[in-house]
Amino acid sequence: MQFADRLDNVETSAIRELFKLLGKPGIISFAGGFPDSAMFDVEGIREASARALAEEPGAALQYGATEGYEPLRAQLSAFMSEKGARDVAPGELIVTTGSQQALDLLGKTMISPGDKVIVEGPTFLATIQCFRLYGAELISAPIDGDGVNTDALERLIAEHRPKLVYLIPTFGNPSGATLSLARRKKVLELAVKYQTLVVEDDPYGDLYFGEAPPPSLLALSHEVAGSRALLAHCGSLSKVLSPGLRVGWLIAAPELLAKATMCKQFSDAHTSTFAQATAAQYLKAGRMPATLAHVRAVYAERAQAMGDALRAELGAAVDFVQPRGGLFVWARLTGAGGVLADGNVLAKRAIDQGVAFVPGAPFFCAQPDPATLRLSFATADVAKIREGVARLGAALRG
Predict the structure, then answer these.
(1) Can you tell me the distance from the alpha carbon of 355 to that of 351, in angstroms, rounded to the nearest whole number?
(2) Chain mean pLDDT for the chain
């Protein structure tokens, strides 16, 4: 078959390929980026879906507006207001089938073959694949524990004049990094200075441990004149409520939102109205604060357990920043003591020892660092985390 030329730019996800190896009995997986299904508020979602069918069965089961189910748009507007973005009207967002569809719509509406796009190094693997599918030339911006290096980012923007800049400012996937408040303001200033669209992907911002992170770029945009029009914000309920609902949203300037809505008409007509009605009822019922408090506490304990175990079992052979939120530990093998410093080789050894993680190299669009690895603490309890890291240590020592 003669497939589209655009498929030459992408390859199968390394993470999805890894999952094929996880059928081994007794394996402990730190590989997935999933929330723990044991913490889903099943009763709350059941009640919400029942109310959706009882109160507006026609609307919940019928075709709907491409922009989204109006009661959900109103609830999401209120949800964003509670997080500091107080001026997002329901009509200023569209509901998407997960935030990943929002990224796909941005690719469709903004990227032409050969356009330059700046992403973090490392960044979300699906974003690399999505933007390359539309022909983008991806440029990697360096990051540290405080997120993207804004001085380096400015140099890259000035040199390449990208079509857009894509960032995960809060608890990044895979880095776990959180952009500092000063750097957030600098990013908004750069957007205005260079008239460059900044895409803020924020699926993890609600999953903080202890102190809340700085406000989102969207919430801060009122402090930098002109930045709101150059900002696209992607949100999601997948990590905090349920991935199965596939409810996300996109907030952007009216002209961009209109183009994204048109492209969504071609893609799926609209996100599931039943899922949207269920999500609207859930938010309306006021259960989200208690749900967030619960998952934050559980993930915080697991993150601490993983950090403690890594320090105890691997010591100087691994370097990482203790997560302050999100789902991941991003680590780098140092080679100290003469042990292995290649994440890809370690991943194969780890499978033999009964533990899985994702090597870090695929998360870079350029100059991959083979010593890096991503470990998710979300779906394993504390005992399994300790055992899994012990197995990882055994694999490292060979």
Answers:
(1) 5
(2) 95
3-state SS class at 251: strand
3 state SS for 306-372: HHHHHHHHCHHHEEECCCCECCEEEEEECCHHHCCCCHHHHHHHHHHHCEECEECHHHCCCCCCCCE
Query: Under a CB-based contact definition with an 8 Å cutoff, are residues 27 and 18 in contact?
Result: no
Write the pLDDT tens digit of every residue in 116-136: 999 999 999 999 999 999 999
CB 305: neighbour CB atoms within 10 A? 19
Tell me which residue of 117, 80, 52 sits closest to 279, measured CA to CA: 52
Alpha carbons within 13 A on the beta-carbon side of 323 = 35
What is the spatial distance between Cα 216 and Cα 179, in angstroms, rounded to a whole number?
Answer: 10
> Residue 319: exposed, middle, or buried by beta-carbon count in 10 A (0-12, 13-18, 19+)?
middle
- Beta-bridge partner residues of 231: 198
Token pair listed for 24: 């081994």
Q: Do the Cβ atoms of 345 and 264 come closer than 8 Å?
A: no
Q: Which residues contact 97 (CB under 8 A, 6 or more apart)?
A: 246, 247, 248, 268, 271, 272
68 within 8 A of 95, measured Cβ to Cβ: yes
Beta bridge partners of 201: 234
> Which residue type, as a one-letter code, is found at position 92?
E
The per-residue pLDDT for range 132-141, each reduced to its tens digit, is: 999 999 999 9
Side-chain half-sphere exposure of 97, counting CA atoms within 13 A: 16
| Structure token digits, residue 174 | 């895979």
DSSP conformation class of 20: T
Taking CA atoms, 74 is separated from 52, 89, 90, 280, in Å, by 15, 8, 5, 8
Name all contacts of 85-89 with Cβ < 8 Å and 24+ positions apart.
85/216, 85/218, 85/219, 85/233, 85/251, 86/219, 87/222, 88/218, 88/251
How far, in Å, CA of 49 to CA of 131, rounded? 35
Mean pLDDT over residues 257-261, rounded? Answer: 98
